[in-house]
Amino acid sequence: MTEELIIAGFGGQGVLSLGKILAYSGILQNQEVSWMPSYGPEMRGGTANVTVILSDERISSPYLKLFDTAIILNQQSMDKFESSIKPGGILIYDPNGITIHPKRKDIHIYQIDANKLSSEMGNKKVYNMVVMGGYLKVKPVVQLDNVVEGLKKSLPERYHNLIPLNVEAIQKGMDNLVTINEVSVLN
Amino acid sequence: MAELKLMKGNEALAEAAIRAGVDAYFGYPITPQTEIIEYLMMEQPEKRTGMVVLQAESEVAAINMVYGAAGTGKRVFTSSSSPGISLKQEGISYMAGAEIPAVVVNVVRGGPGLGTIQPSQADYFQSVKGGGHGDYKLYVLAPASVQEMADFVEDAFDIAFKYMAPVLILSDGLIGQMMEKVYLKEQKPRWTDEEIYKMHNDWATFGRKNGRERNIITSLDLKSEKMEKRVHRLYKKYAQMEEEDLRYETIQCEDAEYIIVAYGSSARIAQKTVDLARAKGIKVGLLRPITLFPFPKKQLMELTKQVKGILSVELNTGQMVEDVRLAVEHKVPVEHFGRTGGIIHTPEEILEALQQKLIKG
Fold it and tell me: Counting CB atoms within 10 angstroms of each CB, which of B52, B132, B159, B356 has the fewest?
């Protein structure tokens, strides 16, 4: 198994930490992992993205042109990365603020309204965990109990009381993923 | 037992330095290297091992603090990124001349000038062809993973003390900023004063005991005959490094018809190019120099017996390619491919370049 994933959105949406929790979860089930951020003059409101690779084998390039899955959380990232998904790959996006929806017919497309769902939960900070739920629903690359352990490793101890809320957010994401387009081959 | 963690390359290097029992770090922040000093400040190793961590007022101050502290026989290092490493060159040249063991880390960003904060390998010439003034070389280690960022700290100190010379770890923004899993070694104790006395009493300046002659650390020799001798002594060490401490890795070279030569982040990216090429039936192998000086010259020459061409892949406009050409003495075509200015080449781009420059050409 090798999963080559890009997560892209606004700074402040939890893009980098979502990637980090996934990477930690991968380690806990003995996978090789890499996490390569687009570092730079990014800030809250600017764009941020991270390439995460989970694999059973030694990872070669941590930097990629094409991805198995893209999780896209704003329009700029949609414009940039829709064409970077391998045929038969997966695009998961938050429709909030998206004015030009994806057009490709050769990939699986799903929507996760994580903005609305996290608002309903009363804590917008779990936004990225709702997204995580949506992703794990279509690509269960890591097990939920490893994600919980991954959360423990990634979050400072003073926030560990928020882990049940995060798990609830993941569940909410899993339950609310909307299918937009499916193709016959799942890459 | 080794501890498994998910860390950035910069953080792994910093933690490995603490665990290796390093005595001091002097540095100054600059992207994409800042996590090294940030991690050391947060971790407060003075409480763990007594290691000193100090933010100097400038890069120039930091390298001279290293020069001074390393002169006492302690294990000391500094880190920076390209523009800051340029500022340190005077101190590095002095340490090479005075034969002082120390470790310098360069997490390279795009240049020239202030350039960009994105990854680059444009400091190859600076690293292996001197950098500072005078007849000297640095032993240069080029990590290609977070694990190597951690492992190379201790390796670099071993080499520095084996040869009494400054050693450079040449990383870049990609390896420094990415996270991978890393196995961290157990904490080792710092050298005690007694151990340092035993090992380094013949050269270090930690105060005279038992009426020995005073040790003098200097790179200055106004008598040219003596200075020439000193330079020849340095070059004898460099020859010994080439004999004993060359490091490289070959991947799928056994049956290769084309070879990519790449180090650090480019080697990681080119590894995927090898897979892409082989899936298309093109027999490509990768030679990764782990040390840039010493350089795997003989190994490259050996490969000319079987390969049709060599592509040097670097995040610059063509620097290491000159050393590759020198090594193979025009026996096979050698071409260069690389993006620069902070752009990172993709595995696909490298394959396309290989096909255009070596196969179709």
Answer: B356
